[in-house]
Each structure stands twice: as C-alpha cells, then as structure tokens.
Specification:
Elements: E1 5-9, H1 19-31, E2 36-38, H2 47-58, H3 60-63, E3 67-72, H4 78-92, E4 97-102, H5 112-124, E5 127-133, H6 137-149, E6 157-161, H7 171-180, E7 183-187, H8 208-211, H9 214-219, H10 222-238, H11 242-252, E8 258-262, H12 266-276
Parallel strand pairs: 1-2, 1-8, 2-3, 3-4, 4-5, 5-6, 6-7, 7-8
Helix pairs in contact: 4-5, 10-11, 11-12
C-alpha cells in the first residue's frame, strides 16, 4: 500500500517562528524531497506568504521543485477574487499561484460570478489548480457539477482536517475523490497537539488550543477522548510515543495524497519522516 506524501504546512511562519527558523525548515524539507508547501493569506496576516516568497526568491533551484498552495477566505465576491489573488502573488513575489484553495466552504462559492472569476484565473494561467479546504464532500461534488455544466474547470483538490481523533473525510469520501480524480490533502495529523495527550489536565498555556480556543470545541468530545485513550494504550504496548503512532496512522490511511505537517523546529520535521517510514504492523493495536 502506498503512503501519503509529506507536505509542509507553513501556518507557523511569522506567527510562531521567524524568518531564520522558517528558512531552516524549508531548506531541510526540500533536501528530503518534499515538494508541497502550504500557506494562506490568513496565516500571520500575510506574514507566512511573505516568508515563503522570500525563501522562493532566495532559492530559485529549490523553488522550481516545489508546488506552493495558498488560500483565500470567504465570503467570496466575483469582483474581489482576482485582487485577492494578486495580493497573495505580490506577497510571495510570484506571477501565479500553483494551487489556490478557498479556505473554507461558503454559500457564495456556488454563485455563477464567483465560479466564472475563478475559471478566468485558471484560463489566464494566474492559477494552475483549484481546491477547497474544510468542506463536506456533498458540497464539493455539487459545485463541481455546476462548474461542469457551465463549461468551467472543476475544483480538483480537497483539504480537510484528518487525524486519529477527528476525521473530516470518511473512507467513502476518499473513494469518491479517487473516482472523480480529486486529490486529497489532509492536515493536523497530531490534532494540533491533542493526540500527544498534553491537554489531559486542561489546556496547556501558549498552545494552539489556548491561542485559538475554537480547537477545544472540535477536539474536546467524548469520541475524541475515547480515541485518545486507545492511542495511548496502543503506544504503550508498542513502546513508541503517541505522536509517532498518530503520525504513522495518518500516513498509512488509504486514498490520501498528502499529509500536511506543521512544524516549529527541525525535530518536528524529522519526526514526520520517521513516522512515514514506520511499518504498518505497528498500527495493529489501533
């Protein structure tokens, strides 16, 4: 069984780590063969895009070997989409976007003018691929049908939260994606730190759950705590860390093209590469 590839999520850039540490992560990632970088206009209020862009300009050979994805937030308005894409291009110092995501689902996605504006970006070469993040499968299939009826190039990538605790893509969803030629990208293999168990006795101060309290509503559920219990027991039996086992699980799930990992230091990146190479037999206890 083939495993998902590693993509580098750049959400920490300019928010949790600065330029020097971000560059070190990017250099190490590309040296290891990683070929997908994922940022967004909202990350650090544009700081992540700026750091990625500075790195791209300073490493032209490496830049040629990676695909860079970014995102724009809803609501979406036909008259504003090109301008927002141009702003991202300006921050990154690029002429076009390899992969543009709509950062989350919104009813405005289905408006004819919005879809026409996105299609125009594709046909102009300003954007090479379109995707949607944080979307239910039914909504994505519905808007793809509208695009096809209008003669537009459909969305071809989905990016959702997916880990041992919270799974915003079912096995059936992933099979549908395979059948329709939709690439699947997942993020947060450690559940923003939930799967390490560090929030067992309350939210750890300074953590993502502390900085972005909305994470608590997503993860602090009976099902997620139950899955954390199982992960802890399986990790103890296997003699590995919970983080290692959770990552190995994420990389081993079928019909996933990329798993995005966030990092603040090189150890986090190495942890992901080690987990990806783990034998699937390790997962037998889950």
């Amino acid at each position: 069984m083939s495993k998902a590839k590693i993509g580098l999520g750049c959400v920490t850039f300019g928010r949790e780590i600065g330029r020097r540490d971000s560059f070190a992560l990017l250099d190490a990632a590309v040296e290891r063969g990683l070929d997908l970088l994922d940022t967004a206009a909202a990350y650090g209020e544009g700081a992540s895009e700026e750091i990625v862009g500075e790195w791209l300009r300073s490493r032209p050979d490496a830049a040629a070997s990676v695909e860079v994805a970014t995102k724009i937030l809803p609501p979406f308005h036909a008259s504003e989409i090109r301008g927002r894409v141009e702003e991202s291009c300006l921050r990154m110092g690029v002429s076009g976007i390899d992969l543009l995501y709509l950062h989350s689902w919104d009813t405005t996605v289905e408006e004819h003018g919005v879809l026409a504006a996105l299609d125009e970006l594709l046909r102009d070469g300003k954007v090479r691929r379109l995707g949607v993040s944080n979307v239910k499968m039914g909504y994505l299939l519905r808007v793809r049908k509208i695009q096809e009826q209008l003669g537009f190039v459909p969305f071809s990538v989905i990016q959702n939260n997916f880990n041992y605790a919270v799974r915003d893509l079912t096995e059936a969803d992933r099979k549908v994606c395979r059948e329709h030629g939709i690439a699947v990208v997942t993020y947060s293999p450690l559940g923003a730190g939930f799967l390490t168990g560090k929030h067992r006795n309350g939210v750890e101060k300074g953590s993502r759950f502390d900085v972005i309290p909305g994470h608590q509503d997503v993860y602090f559920t009976a099902q997620s705590w139950d899955r954390l219990d199982r992960l802890e027991n399986a990790a103890k039996s296997a003699g590995v860390s919970q983080a290692h086992l959770a990552m190995a699980w994420a990389f081993s799930q079928p019909d996933i093209d990329y798993v995005l990992i966030g990092a603040r230091k090189l150890d986090h990146l190495e942890q992901a590469f080690l987990a990806r190479e783990e034998d699937v037999e390790l997962l037998s206890g889950l």
